[in-house]
Write a structure and sequence with these properties.
Layout lengths: L2 H24 L5 H25 L5 H30 L2
Helix pairs in contact: 1-2, 2-3
Keywords: Membrane, Transmembrane, Transmembrane helix
Length: 93
């Protein structure tokens, strides 16, 4: 992929990260919006790893694929844990 296109992807990735960070600091803690913004970070990480492997085509892809799988599993586990904890906390209020 051309250097210009890779630069555009990095600029877009950085812009999305900055916007998510600003929105996360503005949105009240414990709200639905805060949860949605927080869940966007693992999605952004998975996209970055996947696009990096595709664009740069490293000689050894297995470590990157394992990192991708770990990021997906960690993000999914975080979502499940938050759903379970919020369900448990609603039952005690």
């Amino acid at each position: 992929m051309a250097t210009y296109a890779v630069r555009k992807v990095w600029i877009g990735y950085s812009a999305i990260g900055i916007v998510l960070t600003v929105v996360r600091t503005i949105v009240p803690e414990g709200s639905l919006g805060a949860g949605l913004v927080t869940y966007c970070y693992p999605v952004l990480t998975v996209a970055a790893i996947g696009l990096g492997v595709r664009f740069h085509r490293p000689a050894w892809t297995l470590p990157w694929i394992l990192l991708l799988v770990m990021s997906v599993a960690g993000g999914a586990g975080n979502m499940v844990m938050c759903a379970v904890c919020s369900r448990l906390l609603q039952g005690h209020s």
